[in-house]
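EI: anyone free to look at a 141-residue chain?
SC: sure, send it
EI:
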Amino acid sequence: MKTNQEKIELLYGKAKEAMKNSYSPYSKFKVGAALLTKSGKIYTGTNIENASYGLSMCAERIAIFKAVSEGETEFETLVVIGDTETPISPCGACRQVIAEFGVNEVVLTNLKKDLKKMSVKELLPYGFSGEELDGKDSNNR
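SC: here you go
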């Protein structure tokens, strides 16, 4: 793969392109995501709404779920883009899914190319993990 900056530029372009496919007739709020796997594949996602709002799905989760459904489980970088004043921030559900699958780097951005790079711990400092299900407390709560 290219330099980190070139990688982010590539993912930014893929996320921006995916954003165009948003199905957001209710909110009119389009979001795109691009996920790079450790094997070098890129999966994209966009938000898809439903009249029954709880059935809607965010771009970040769609990209991750597409990758997992294709057998990928190790992730390098996720870029999320929205038409926002500052870099877009994932919802809580997306943060939990991002943490579950251990994405190494999350890049939040907007159409002005403002970037905010974050680790999963920065994005979700006290996330729920499988260790809690095993009776272990990984967050020392």
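EI: DSSP finds five helices and five strands in the chain.
SC: 👍
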